[in-house]
Fold each of these.
Amino acid sequence: MKKRLYFGSNLKMYKNVHDTIAYLEQLQQLTADLNREKYTLFIIPSYTSHEQACKKINQSLIKLGAQNMCWEEQGQFTGEISPLMLQELGLELVELGHSERRHIFGESNEMLRRKVNASLSHGFTTLLCIGETGDEKDYGISDEILRIQLKTALLDVKEQDYGKLWIAYEPVWAIGINGRPATTDYAQEKHSVIRTALVELFGKQGNDIPILYGGSVNLDNAASLIVQPDIDGLFVGRSAWDAQNFNTLIRDAVMAYDTQPLV
Ligand code: PGA
């Protein structure tokens, strides 16, 4: 059976409100004909754009998300954003544990466990990002790191919430302008490690949790990544920030996926 495919982007700290809305409207229009029974599209802009984006974008076409969230609903947490505030805006998705949150802002697996629980219990689709650093890869401990990140952050996830959980595998050494994309084989191998850990955690329902690959996804590698058995979607940075380019990337991937023989 063909699986649902996921395509999304985190806009990081780029694009003001005007540029974000123009980008989202263009992307919504370019991708209007894509069958949402088969494909999920999502964009995660800055907080300042959320209010307008939620008014102008149809989230059944493009889901909108936040780049981070506090585990508490309110309190003395200067600079943080509450799940209630994100609910009030009408967002459907929360991204947690992006490598920049972990490595620049010091988010730990334990903090992420609390955030994942808060996000799921407030009804958000929750995209947990995991990935090993270049050093961890060189030490040969990538699999252990991925398993620790997953098993710590997902410790308390309840069965009723499995359907709202997405995972993004983003090797830290592959992200951004200084990153180099993982080879397709390497990405598939790590996705398989993640799949095994999800099944250990959640039983056979772990097979249904989407695992997206991110880290220098571009027009050259999107098609070969999406056809891998354990890659369910692409989480794209730079190559998605131009709507035309992202649309082309999505269509290349969809075409590659749809034309491969069914096994
Ligand atoms: P990149 O970003 O595609 O620009 O490497 C990926 C990410 O940080 O999610």
Amino acid sequence: MFRSHRYGLITSIVGIVAITVLLFVYRNLVWHVLVEHETKSHATLTQVFSNTIWPRYALFLADASQFSKAELQHHEVIHRLQQDVARYIARSSVVKIKIYDLTGITVFSTDPAQIGQDKSHNPGFISANKGVPTGKITFRDRFNTFEGVIVDRNLVSSYIPVRISENAPVEAVFEVYSDVTDLVVDIKKHQWEIIAWVVGSLSLCYLFLLVIVRRADKTIQAQDKQRLDDEAKIHYQAHYDALTGLHNRISFAERLEEALKRARRAGRMLGLLQFDLDRFKLVNDSLGQSAGDQVLRTSAKRMLVCIRESDMVFRTGSDQFAIIIEPLRNTEDVSRLASRVIESMAEPIKVNDQDLTVTVSIGISIFPQDDLSAEMLVKNSDSAMHLAKQEGRNQYRYYSPAMKQHALDRLEFETGLKQALQNDEFVLYYQPRVETKSEEIVAVEALLRWAHAERGLVPPNSFIPLLEQMGLINSVGEWVLRTACQQTKKWHDAGMSRVRVSVNISSGQFRVRSFVDMVQDALDQSGLDAQYLELELTESVLIENIDTAVKVMDDLKAIGVAISIDDFGSGYSSLNYLKLLPLDFLKIDRTFVKDLATNEKDMAIIKTIAALAHSLNIKLVAEGVEESGQVEFLRSQDCYELQGFLFSPPVPSAAIPDMISTQVVSRAV
Ligand code: C2E
Ligand code: MG
Ligand code: MG
């Protein structure tokens, strides 16, 4: 991770090094200036010397080499010179003076012990001998001056050529020592002050920088963390389902490919289970989306309990799930898992204080025996799942090659269905509805059939859901309504003027905005009086959007059409809506009528529904009436109309006039 305060630290260190180097350069410069300044003042001193004292001693000193060292040290001239020099330099910073003749021999020194020493090789002497003065600064812990020994001193020593005039030849070389200790102490003190200032301000700067950089660092780190969190969130959203927390469809495709690769490489089997919740749409439609969500969440949790750690569960669609089993040892493992899932779902799910039982239909495909590609494995398990559904739901089915044929047949069926309307292959059958009191036909229900060239008359349950899925239900439904109206008008014209017709309406049709206009148009076109038309709606149609449903039904009532609720009691209905709707009939679902004679609970339910309908002033209709015993009970409950095989199955339109005129419906048994 990027840590900017490190860069701040490095920058500060570089700054400190740069300042140290600058201070060092500055110090040397100061020394240089000091030495230069001292050397200049030594030159001035020498000049003054050569103008005043020198002429008196020049001759003697020029010949001094003829004396021995000892003679020279004790010579009376030297002694005098000693005194002159002392007088000159007394109370000045000069602490020592030496004089060399042109051969480099020390002919005079305020320290007599040094007289006679040879300095001809000294670079300072050589330079001064050539006329160029030089100087340097040295530290001496002990030094002999003309006034005695001094300790720990900084001295500037300069070699100065002695000339009578500016362009005159060099006659001798002076070496002058001056004590610059006080100056040096001063300079050093200043230097320390500067260093203290620089280091102090630098430290402050660094501290300031550190605070800023730390803050920036924290902000950057926080941003980094936020970015990583966002990335993780985006990744999560892309790969997980928010509702159940399971891997989603995208993840499924990726993981299946990966798992297949592994299985292929290792030569192992892989199992794919695909399943969806049976009748989930009904739960969602009748109890609302939040109830549906709760069912999905609970189902997902139960599935997770069923699987091994290495297996993965996915939510691949609204109520669709998948499990990848990899590695798979044998097919029994898959069967066991599928059974476990089915069992785990058997326990009711509590939603809004209601116990719902949701079952699953599972389709299974196995790699490598079924197919090698991920796409085909998915397709195959999907076909197997559809088979499990068709064969009664709440079970699992393995994919078999025969299903391929089945899938092809289904495709052909769908293609045929698309053309059925143009090809005039739909027909309406009519099932009589008799008045309980008189047992006379008062109405007929129009029931759709598909006259298939090879399959014969196809019942609506096997193609109406397909029409809905394929988006064809509106056009076919319109045809049904118009045909039923025209047919009923024909019967009226033929003298059967009391008969009503009821037409089933699917939710897809009901949602279309122009639905009421279409109904009005069908009535206008056929010339049928609106009071003879009844529309049968299922509970799910109403629950989807009760406000719109009430509005549409009010409009239908306004044009004079009767409305009934079909298959009442089969959905997860809320009785609350009944009081909101302008209903004329309630058709009890035939499952309650079926076992009426033997099932006391069904009896109780019908009694309750009957009481409810009467209190709301809605007429009760019973469908699926097959036995006379049922008729008696229904009569006792003031059921207004009866419909069922006991009176007549659905018949072609041509059969109806005879039935009405002779009332042949009166009890088939
Ligand atoms: P539904 O509206 O409840 O129609 C009654 C169904 O019960 C009919 O099945 C009828 O043949 C059957 N039935 C009547 N009496 C008895 C009986 O005594 N015993 C038994 N076991 N069954 C009896 P069908 O014609 O197969 O229709 C099935 C469903 O298809 C209908 O149920 C209805 O929901 C739907 N349907 C039929 N025609 C249309 C249509 O034109 N449009 C729409 N949207 N749905 C339709
Ligand atoms: Mg019906
Ligand atoms: Mg029904």
